[in-house]
Amino acid sequence: MMVFIKSHLIAWDQGESQKRGGKMQRGPGVPCPQEEEIVQRAVAGEPFSDDLTHHIARCERCQEKVAVYQRLNASLVQKLYRFDCPSSETLSYYCAGLLEKTRADETEGHLRVCPLCAEEVEQTHTFLQAEQFKDS
């Protein structure tokens, strides 16, 4: 999903850059960093290097880019969060062993590639074990 978000954000910014005449420099001959670096840091939440932090502090255009990328990322994450994941109800049924074999196999396959659902299943298993221990 991160690749999807990055590619759309970069495509959006390239369109914005073309609207402004393709200018990629601001200030007295100081080039702005590569789009990929700004996107990766802003979207993935990775810390900016000292040089990039210093540049962004002085460059209004890069400050705008970071803010836009962060807002777009938050919006996309909110809208796409777990868009192709099984419901929490399905995951709970999976943990309780109540899914049909075909659906359980599909869920297991999904859990191998989705850390969000795998974490939810782990938390549900922990909860069920604690409840089972209480009942004993």
Topology:
Layout lengths: L1 H18 L5 E2 L3 E2 L3 H10 L5 H9 L1 H21 L7 H8 L5 H13 L1 H21 L1
Antiparallel strand pairs: 1-2
Helix pairs in contact: 1-2, 2-4, 3-4, 5-7, 6-7
The share of residues in extended strands comes to under 5%
Q: Output the strand order for the largest sheet.
A: 1-2
Helices and strands: which structural class? Answer: mainly alpha
Q: How many β-strand stretches? A: 2
Instruction: List low-confidence stretches.
Output: 16-28
What is the radius of gyration? 22 Å
Shape: elongated
Q: Roughly how much helix do the residues carry, as a percent range?
A: over 70%
How is the main sheet built?
Answer: 2 strands, antiparallel
Number of domains: 2
User: Number of helix segments?
Assistant: 7
Mean pLDDT: 79
How far is the first residue's CA from the last residue's CA?
Answer: 43 Å
Order of helices and strands: HEEHHHHHH
Structure overview:
By secondary structure, this protein is mainly α. The protein has two domains: 2-80; 88-135, no CATH class. The protein has helices at residues 2-19, 35-44, 50-58, 60-80, 88-95, 101-113, 115-135; strands at residues 25-26, 30-31. Strands 1-2 form a two-stranded antiparallel sheet. Helix 2 (35-44) packs across helix 4. The longest helix has 21 residues, at 60-80. It comes from Ktedonobacter robiniae.
